[in-house]
Specification:
This protein has 2 domains: about 1-120 and about 165-220 and about 390-465, Rossmann fold (3-Layer(aba) Sandwich), CATH 3.40.50.1820; about 120-160 and about 220-385, no CATH class. It contains 15 helices and 13 strands. The chain has helices spanning about 1-15, 85-90, 100-105, 135-155, 165-180, 195-205, 225-250, 260-270, 285-295, 300-315, 330-340, 345-360, 370-375, 410-420, 440-450; strands spanning about 25, 30, 40-45, 55-65, 75, 105-110, 115, 120, 185-190, 210-215, 395-400, 420-425, 460. The strands form 2 sheets. Strands 1, 2, 3, 4, 5, 6, 9, 10, 11, 12 and 13 form an 11-stranded mixed beta sheet that branches. Strand 12, helix 15 and strand 13 (about 460) form a beta-alpha-beta unit. Helix 5 packs across helix 6 (about 195-205) and helix 8 (about 260-270) runs antiparallel to helix 9.
């Protein structure tokens, strides 16, 4: 039965690429609030784009007009899954002086499922938190939790719950473009917001003026194994940089020791219950992996990571409480419709872990693995399954950090190879470069204004930590 449902979902998604977008109904623009320079409206779209005359929802839309000369409309895509782009545009906390707000009428659209009166509803915010499954019974219990949780959300939310995927959100953007009565739009998306940009460009290439994808997703990854292997490899690359720093830095708590050997010994002890978390419970392998994953946050976090590993090695007790896994109402309701994360059974899960650990023996699995586990047993099929992006002349600039811990560099390489889109590399590990790395910011602003892209193979040199801008990234709670 599940196979039939998935096949039907795929067929429906293919059919959607040929469907026309009807003219959207909308409310008048009104001020968003006393403390905001933006104006707000709602745009009405169908719950199911395959049934344009069916039930409708209202999307929350915000627009902040250019503070200088406007060069048209630019859609802003925050991270997620479940980006609140309209909320960000209402009051951008640190981008108010950025080039995009000076040169464009910036428009943000909150993701479907986040609108007032049309939000995702669940009886509880998340499933019971669990350790990673250690046997078939625990894996079955995890699936049962996820199935019950998602079925409840589906019942509480109604038909909208089956149409939260990013492709549906991309069609929503096109409806907003039509409402704005502009022929083409520019787009800046960061983190999970890059998937929205990719899908808009694939569905409506003739409507894109210029597009920047900053720290990008790769929607061609076919399954949980490939997704988690690439994430783990990114974490492993960052851990290698931490180990090199420790070897070269006398103040490192593990200086003079074999860092890899220390971690390997800790892994062995954690796997047999010989380490404790801060509550006195056996430290789980996931928690230890989450600790070593902190290497991804760069040199500012290196000293504390070394100190924590040294403490664990000397005392057998961590400063951290055990990490748990569970599904959340917004994040996974979208994520599980966009990715083929399903594993057949516990043996399949174990095979995945083995393959991940082969490519990343120090960090083993990335903590992002727990998000793919949240989709096991999900009651809604993957209606927007991964697929290769099509080569096309749409003018897109992809930017990614070489050591980005969330959207790993190989994802950007894959996307660039699939599409022919230009890739600009930041040689550091930052997640999100615009307004934070001057080199990337200049390329972004120049490209969006003039269409002039950097030459293929262009790199922005890594900046010392003190020279980077420290603003937060407009993201959600997963990749952002």
């Amino acid at each position: 039965m599940k196979r039939v449902l998935l096949a039907s979902a795929i067929s429906a998604s293919l059919l959607l690429t040929t469907l026309p977008i009807a003219q959207a109904a909308a409310s008048p623009w009104t001020p968003c609030g006393e403390d905001s320079k933006a104006e707000c409206t709602t745009v009405t779209v169908p719950v199911d784009w395959a049934r344009p005359d069916g039930p409708k929802i209202d999307l929350e839309v915000a627009r902040q007009k250019a503070t200088g000369t406007s060069h048209g409309v630019l859609f802003f895509g925050t991270g997620g899954p479940g980006g609140r782009s309209a909320d960000f545009v209402k009051k951008p906390p640190y981008m108010a002086d950025a080039g995009i707000f000076k040169n464009f009428d910036v428009v943000g659209v909150n993701a479907r499922g986040l609108g007032k009166g049309y939000e995702i509803k669940c009886s509880v915010e998340n499933t019971p938190l669990r350790d990673l499954p250690a046997n078939p019974q625990e894996f079955a219990a995890l699936k049962a939790d996820n199935a019950a949780f998602s079925a409840d959300c589906r019942k509480q939310t109604g038909p909208l719950y089956d149409h939260l995927d990013t492709a549906s959100n991309a069609r929503d953007l096109e409806a907003v473009r039509r409402f704005l009565a502009v022929d083409k739009v520019s787009y800046y998306g960061i983190s999970y917001g890059t998937l929205l940009g990719q899908q808009y460009a694939q569905l409506f290439p003739h409507r894109v003026q210029h597009m920047v994808l900053d720290s990008t997703m790769d929607h061609s990854l076919p399954n949980a194994v490939e997704f988690n292997k690439t994430e783990a490899q990114g974490a492993e690359d960052n851990f290698d940089r931490f180990a090199d720093w420790c070897d070269a830095t006398a103040s490192c708590a593990l200086h003079g020791e074999d860092v890899q050997a220390v971690v390997h010994t800790l892994q062995q002890k954690a796997d047999v219950g010989e380490l404790k978390d801060s509550k006195g419970q056996p430290l789980t392998g996931l928690t230890l992996d989450s600790i070593t994953f902190n290497a991804v946050f760069g040199k500012p976090g290196y000293p504390s990571l070394a100190t924590e590993l040294k403490k664990l090695a000397d005392t057998g007790t961590s400063s951290e409480e055990n990490t748990k896994v569970g599904a959340g109402s917004i994040t996974h309701s979208i994520l599980c419709q966009d990715w083929n994360f399903q594993l057949r059974d516990y043996a399949d899960y174990q095979r995945m872990l083995h393959q991940v650990n082969q490519v990343a023996p120090m960090t083993r699995m990335s903590p992002y693995t727990k998000h793919s586990l949240a989709c096991q047993g999900w009651s809604v099929p993957t209606v927007n399954p991964p697929k290769q992006a099509k080569p096309q002349p749409t003018p897109v600039l992809v930017i990614n950090g070489r050591y980005d811990f969330a959207t790993v560099y190989s994802w950007a390489e894959n996307l660039s190879e699939q599409t022919g889109w230009t890739l600009l590399t930041y040689d550091g590990g930052l997640h999100g470069t615009y307004t934070r790395i001057p080199c990337a910011t200049e390329y972004t602003d120049t490209y969006l204004l003039t269409g002039q892209r950097p030459q293929p193979g262009t790199h922005c040199a890594e900046l010392p930590d003190g020279q980077r801008q420290q603003q937060p990234v407009p993201t959600g709670d997963l990749w952002g």
